[in-house]
Amino acid sequence: MRHLFLLCLLVPVLAAGQQRKPDRKLQQALEEIVGRFNGRAGIYVQHLKTGAWAAVNADTVFPTASIVKVPLLVGLFAKIDSGKLGYHQPMIYRDSAKYGGSGLMQFFKDSAATEVSVLAALMMAYSDNTTSLWNQQLAGGGAEINRLLEQYGFKDTRVNSRTAGREEIRKIYGWGQTTPREMTTLLIRIRRGEIISRAASERMYRLMSKGYYDEQALTQIPPYVQAAAKTGSVNESRSEVVLVNAPHGDYAFYIGTKNIKDQRWEADNEAVEMIRTVSALLWKHFEPRSDWKPTFRKETF
């Protein structure tokens, strides 16, 4: 009877955390998808309610590209939560901070008034490079953000760009680096209110649920289902991290790629198509009774 009692206590704990073994059906399906990919790919997925999970190359280090902006956001909110920055603190944009690529602030006029909340919102919604570099500076720089990540137990997720001592590794991974397991875990912990503080985590999650770049994994999730997500794209890598607030329980996943053969910036890029394929598989796996069908078409780009 005593053993039965202990077992009854243990079962809910396992369900709330993580199953000992991966979901066999999901694991096999993901391995087949990754096996067909022309490049290196890694995936980690976890269902928060049941603890079901699957992993393919989940501890392999991949370039983050713009997904590094999630750790930058964490660093920024560490300063806000400590009172060293105000969320609505006024700032002045100088065009000397202009940086090309994605984003809107590069088009602001010199001396334009803005505030910290705008910098955070533009970084997460439009993957704004100018505000991202500004936020990295406001957060204390890459080294300070990396120390924070280490404190939270992330051993591979790091900011490389503009971070002293990481110049050589930046040549390999670019602005930042992570693993599928770690970035998925970071987003799960934000969802659970465990990063910086509950209030900071909730605000970060709100910001991550309002992204403009929604034509990869999110096309395979109903538009009326909230999801927090961040994409990252450079020539040799296309990746995405997503947490879906699905009807039958949240699930999170990260799909990382590198050394991709297809480096075209087209809607049917192989890595982008794989991200959509995995996202569709996960939605059907965790929401098998859903009758929703994606309406996304490549020609809408």
Automatic annotation (TrEMBL):
Protein name (record): Serine hydrolase
Keyword match Hydrolase: yes
Catalyzed chemical reaction(s): a beta-lactam + H2O = a substituted beta-amino acid
Domain Beta-lactamase class A catalytic: 42-257
Keyword entries, A-Z: Hydrolase
GO biological process, one term: response to antibiotic
GO MF term list: beta-lactamase activity
Keyword Hydrolase annotated: yes
Pfam family, one: Beta-lactamase2
